[in-house]
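Human: You know discrete backbone vocabularies at least as well as I do. Show me how you would write down a chain together with its backbone fold. No explanation is needed for now; the record alone will do.

Assistant:
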Amino acid sequence: MVSSPHEAMHRIFQEYPELFTGVSRILGLDFAPPASVTVLPTDLTEARPVERRVDTLLRFDTEDGDSFLLAVEAQGKKDPAKPASWAYYLSYLYAKYQLPPLLLVVCQDRATAEWASRPVTIGPGQWPALTLRPLVAGPHNMPVITDPAQARKDLAMATLSAITHAADPSVDGILKALSTALRDTPETIAHPIVELTAQGLGTRPAAQQWRKLVAVDLSFFTSPMSEELRDEGRAEVRAEVLPMVAEAILMFLEQRGIDIPDDARERITSCDDPETMHHWLTRSATAPSAEAIFDQA
């Protein structure tokens, strides 16, 4: 049951809203007198269900006996509406779990990271009621791990290094170090690293390099994601290398003065089998005709 003092302490401001001006001055603030005041509904319950989900929520119980909540948000671009949502998350989590919440925002570009790291004050300028201060991890502060030995010591940090620097030129060295470190890592540990790295790189150019590294350096992995990356990597290698092999075959034949019919030229340039192309390249040095390079003997 709500007590009378409780009611009086807040309802007086409904009846005499200008009272707040005097109270604020006593508290050392300087709010201008109100030009108008509107009494709003006090029920803050959502009129309809609104789905609010934090990307990842973890409870930490430390060795020192402390406990706190960690909300992790992945942020791909600036979003003016996000700070309000983040403040809601933290307030809700504190009310629900009665544990101090902490927000970590992970970004992949410096501009978004700098935007996300700015404190956001909620309330009037004279006395902000809340201040949102996220921790931000991004390419501006995450380490660039290009030493395989360092990557091997902390595979998770090396993976985050690759993800946060996905758009940076430095990512090539990070990925090479990570793939090298994974060569002697048990598959049960390596598989999640392979998959998280692939997901984190998305469709950026670095994703192509990761596929090639998985196809060559990590060819012994057998997880579905590894097989998929390996197939894509082999396809990309074929797409880059086979046209060069076809050009070499044609050049050898032309330099030897051998006529190349259109159908033979088309067959050479359209072949997508590396072993066949290797055979034709070898034959092009001694074959008496363009058609003769196709012989199996």
